[in-house]
Amino acid sequence: MGRTRTFDVDEALDVALEMFWKKGYDGAPIQALCEAMGVRPGSAYAAFGSKRDLFAAAARRYIETVSAEAIERINGAPSGLQGLRAYFDHLVDAMVDGKRQWGCLITNSLVEFADRDPELSRMFQLHLARLETSFAAALARARADGELRPGAGPESASMLLAVVQGMNVMAKGKPGRRTLQGVAEAAMAGLAASPPT
User: Fold this and answer.
1) Which one of 65, 73, 83, 191 is at 20 to 30 Å from 30 when CA atoms are compared?
2) What are phi and psi of 148, to 5 degrees?
3) Exposure pattern of 78-98 as b/e (b: 16+ CB <10 Å)?
4) CA distance 192 to 147
């Protein structure tokens, strides 16, 4: 008869997620992960499988929570432009005062895994595609409402995705609120219609 698991799997996964987010996959040895989670290596392997499986579960948790909340900010706003502004405002706040100061787990991991794990790389690319789709939908709403300058629209979604990815990388260097806000505001200013004079 197997021994009863004596730890909360969800809590342990959240701890692993935070460590992977902060240190990356290679920077988080399994022994350090187990110590942080408060479990023995054998229990971790029984619950999650390999370190790679634990990482994949943590990345899925990130996408289902952190990323889903970000996308909801875009989609849940009264207008397309308000959704984009709410997204960028929250992003900057998280980069200055929250866990995003470590960058984005998906951005960091895409760089780390791009050539060595096609399955994980596909998961990360799918996440970025969802974010880009949300940007495109917000931009389509904004264009329909006359909020955008001529020529701006859903086709600008890939530019916004590139801006966000760049900001995620910048965040790791702790450039400060003013710099990050400046990048976000410049991106938005390039899209928004000029106010009537």
Assistant:
1) 65
2) -110, 155
3) eebbbbbbbbbebbbebbbee
4) 6
Both tokens of 184, joined, read 């976000």
pLDDT digits (tens, 9 = 90+) for 117-146: 999 999 999 999 999 999 999 999 999 999
Which among 187, 17, 183, 4 has a CA at the least distance from the CA of 95? 183
In order of their start, the domains of the chain are 51-189 (1.10.357.10)
Span between the terminal Cα atoms of the chain, in Å = 78
Does the model's pTM come out above 0.85?
Answer: yes
Residue 63, both tokens: 């996408």
Digit-coded pLDDT (tens) for 99-113: 888 989 999 998 888
SS3 string of the chain? CCCCCCCCHHHHHHHHHHHHHHHCCCCCCHHHHHHHHCCCHHHHHHHHCCHHHHHHHHHHHHHHHHHHHHHHHHHCCCCHHHHHHHHHHHHHHHHHHCHHHHCCHHHHHHHHHCCCCHHHHHHHHHHHHHHHHHHHHHHHHHHHCCCECCCCCHHHHHHHHHHHHHHHHHHCCCCCHHHHHHHHHHHHHCCECCCCC
